[in-house]
Amino acid sequence: MPESKGRKKDVYTPPPTHKGERKVARIGSPGWLAPTMVTLFVVGLAYIVVFYVAGSQVPVMRDMNALINVAIGFAFIMGGFILAMRWK
User: Rounded distance, CA 81 to CA 44, Å?
Assistant: First the structure.
């Protein structure tokens, strides 16, 4: 019986490893996000508290409407919540 010709298999060589070129996936948030988020929360809360406690004595707060002052405080707090949505 005739023998079939065998297939020639190349010798396996593993792919080269380049430790310097490996990309590392960044997991988590940037370092500035959490401090900025907390700062916006605190500034917004402090603005509203200062407006209710001493708003009639602060010249800028006295000249604006009460609703505008509260809106400014809540704008800072909303900025903190927007950053909180990006926090991982």
Answer: 11
Helical axes 66-86 vs 33-54, angle rounded to 10°: 160
pTM confidence score: 0.68
Beta carbons of 80 and 44 less than 8 angstroms apart:
yes
4-35 tens-digit pLDDT: 777 777 888 888 776 666 677 778 889 999 99
Mapped to the 3 state alphabet, what secondary structure does the chain carry? CCCCCCCCCCCCCCCCCCHHHCCCCCCCCCCCHHHHHHHHHHHHHHHHHHHHHHCCCCHHHHHCCHHHHHHHHHHHHHHHHHHHHHCC
Taking the C-alpha atoms of residue 42 and residue 28, their distance in angstroms, rounded to an integer, is: 23
Confirm if 44 and 73 have CB atoms less than 8 A apart: yes
